[in-house]
Amino acid sequence: MGALLLAAVAAIIVRATLVDFYYIGSDSMETTLEPGEGLLVNRTAYQGHPPQRGDVLVFDGRGSLLPYQRPSPLDDVLRALRVTGDDTAFVKRVIAVGGDTISCCDEDGRLLLNDEPLHEPYLFEGQAPSEQEFTAVVPEGRIWVMGDHRSVSADSRSLLGAPGGGMIPEDRVIGRVERIIWPLDAARHIDRKAPSE
């Protein structure tokens, strides 16, 4: 009994500080991530440096894509034990970081990052980079995120004009998606694919 309790405590500590596991519940990141796939998330990826353009990451959406709710250590423990769901966690790609200006779109329909058109090879086939026109300046300490399947993704575009403007605070980032680990026949590494000219 003591060994089982010790193992459970160790698992909670590892999942709260080093690596965690999440399932994809939507199609907003297709085809990079498919619904039902299990993700290995590196919680230490951003110790000492902020998220980078192109990273696929998991973040706590409370206060940005969801109404604000103060996170609590009890919430983290219950999630680690899978007593409650992860309905506040979102998976998206970082498109712009603090100091960047992101806008849609140029005459060819491409996003502009700091006035330079972006090439986005990860977009879901046949998708426009955005059907919604916007311009946003990302404050320091925040990131602009979008799903790869843009037409079905609730992302930073969804809250333009709201407090925070759809920008995700860096301290709400849980970690970077490193690998697909489930199902086994779909296992693969997730590389950073930064948008480029």
Molecular structure report:
With 197 residues, this protein is of the alpha+beta class. It has a single domain, classed as Umud Fragment, subunit A, CATH 2.10.109. The chain has two helices and twelve strands; from the N terminus they run αβββαβββββββββ. Strands 1, 2, 3, 4, 9, 10, 11 and 12 form an eight-stranded antiparallel sheet that branches. Strands 7-6-5-8 form a four-stranded antiparallel sheet, with no helix packed on it.
Secondary-structure blueprint:
Elements: H1 2-17, E1 19-23, E2 38-42, E3 56-60, H2 73-80, E4 89-97, E5 101-104, E6 111-113, E7 116-117, E8 134-137, E9 142-146, E10 168-169, E11 173-182, E12 188-189
Antiparallel strand pairs: 1-2, 2-11, 3-4, 3-11, 4-9, 5-6, 5-8, 6-7, 9-10, 11-12
Keywords:
197 residues; Umud Fragment, subunit A; 12 strands; single chain
Concise overview:
This protein is α+β, with helices and mostly antiparallel strands. Helix content is 12%, strand content 28%. The longest helix is centred in the first third of the chain and has 16 residues, at 2-17.
